[in-house]
Amino acid sequence: MRIGELANRTGVPTRMLRYYEEQGLITPLRLENGYRDYDEYLVERVLKIRRLLDSGVPTRIIRDMLPCLNDIGSTIVADPDPELRAMLVDQRDKLAERIVLLQQNRDALTRYIDAMDHA
Amino acid sequence: MRIGELANRTGVPTRMLRYYEEQGLITPLRLENGYRDYDEYLVERVLKIRRLLDSGVPTRIIRDMLPCLNDIGSTIVADPDPELRAMLVDQRDKLAERIVLLQQNRDALTRYIDAMDHA
DNA sequence: TCGAACATTGACATCCATGTAAAGGTCAAA
DNA sequence: TTTGACCTTTACATGGATGTCAATGTTCGA
């Protein structure tokens, strides 16, 4: 599909789709006329990118993570590079930290709301 | 305490402490000579701000949340404004969404790492 | 064949969180 | 009294994600 359709289906502006490409997050084919040609599976990938960005994960990190977050739960290990593994562990641990923190804040908000309701 | 000490104790550069003030996140007193005078309790608050920023929560949101995330678990409901309540609920739900998303990505990474280890 | 809808690249603009520097005031200690 | 450490405000710079626009090419339907 072309960029406009992908933009419609994902809600991600064409500007951003080109940006993601520039950042190496997606690599559409090209039609003979130079138009980008997006494969069906990229719909899911773009949505995943959006959710990650919305969660505060920068494109650089997303780029590193993407090959591992395979859409289908296929978990195809292409390359058991120990350096890659270390990076992934590191990244996961950072995620875990953020999760704990956000949970704490979520709970604090909930407590506060509850306290409001009992007043 | 003055800005330098607070910076030392929190690891947050003075530049950022002034920025947080500009954004309405902290409001130090002033000494007669114009120096900022930070209360002891602001140490915790600054650390909290840092953690939130590191989790991708923008200053604007932090500003709204801060009065509710009281350092001491005191939960003093100053103002049972229904509009404030709605904003807090909304904010909490957004947090919850992010948490779920991050958990998913964390789990996906973990699965991938495990798969690497079994290869 | 012409116009509308859609592509392309490239550039410039903006917001946010930061770094950094300039020009100057305060204060304590040598 | 001067030096050095610390503070002030102001400003300009940067990097990342995004908006917007200009100039141009492609395709398709009236």
**DSSP strand tally of chain A:** 2
Q: Could you tell me how far the N terminus lies from the C terminus of chain A, measured between alpha carbons in angstroms? A: 56 Å
**What is the mean pLDDT of chain A?**
86
Quaternary state reads: homodimer
Radius of gyration of chain A, CA atoms, in whole angstroms: 19 Å
Number of domains of chain A: 2
What ranges of chain A have pLDDT less than 50 throughout 5 or more consecutive residues? Answer: none
Strand content of chain A: under 5%
Corresponding CATH architecture of the largest domain in chain A: Orthogonal Bundle
Structural category of chain A is: mainly alpha
Note the overall shape of chain A: flat
Helix and strand element order of chain A: HHEEHHH
Outline the biggest β-sheet of chain A: 2 strands, antiparallel
Share of residues in helices of chain A: 55-70%
Write down the CATH topology of the largest domain in chain A. Multidrug-efflux Transporter Regulator, Chain: A, Domain 2
Number of helices, where a helix is a run of at least 4 consecutive DSSP H or I residues of chain A: 5
CATH first level of the largest domain in chain A: Mainly Alpha
Strand arrangement within the widest β-sheet of chain A reads: 1-2
Largest interface: A-B, 39 and 39 residues
